[in-house]
């Protein structure tokens, strides 16, 4: 189950570092991308098993990235878990086609359980 690759895209360096440490500690390979403009290119290069995506980011928002992914037949298969501090984040995530959503600040145990469930539900490789 482990040794799966998770790409995290968030403009908040603190969250990126925290998620990287926690996910690596859980045995995942972690790729972090702080710039939303680079997210699609990184996803192309890395082919992650799961994507963690913040909704509110400068330049390109998480839901715009997700809509682009969903329009690509190959990448549409990658499960995407979104999170946000926004009150309407859940609505935005659902409308964009996210496979899961958590409100910030999130409980790490809940996040890990969600990641585990998604990776089990979408065995990619």
From TrEMBL:
Keyword set for this entry? Phosphoprotein
Asked whether the UniProt record includes Phosphoprotein among its keywords, one would answer yes
Q: Does the keyword Phosphoprotein apply?
A: yes
Database matches in SMART domains = REC
What Gene3D superfamilies does this protein map onto?
3.40.50.2300
The Response regulatory domain covers 5-119
Which residues in this protein are found as 4-aspartylphosphate?
A: 54
- Pfam family, any one: Response_reg
The processes (GO biological process) annotated in the record are: phosphorelay signal transduction system
Q: What is this protein called?
A: Response regulator
Q: SUPFAM superfamilies of this UniProt entry?
A: CheY-like (SSF52172)
**Organism superkingdom:** Bacteria
């Amino acid at each position: 189950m482990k040794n799966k690759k998770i790409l995290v895209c968030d403009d908040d360096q603190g969250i990126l570092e925290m998620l990287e440490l926690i996910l690596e500690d859980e045995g995942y390979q972690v790729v972090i991308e702080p710039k939303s403009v680079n997210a699609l290119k990184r996803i192309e290069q890395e082919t992650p098993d799961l994507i963690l995506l913040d909704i509110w980011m400068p330049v390109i928002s998480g839901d715009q990235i997700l809509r682009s992914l969903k329009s690509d037949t190959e990448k549409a298969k990658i499960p995407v878990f979104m999170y946000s501090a926004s009150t309407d984040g859940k609505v935005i995530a659902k409308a964009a086609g996210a496979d899961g959503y958590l409100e910030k600040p999130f409980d790490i145990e809940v996040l890990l359980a969600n990641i585990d469930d998604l990776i089990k539900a979408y065995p990619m490789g």
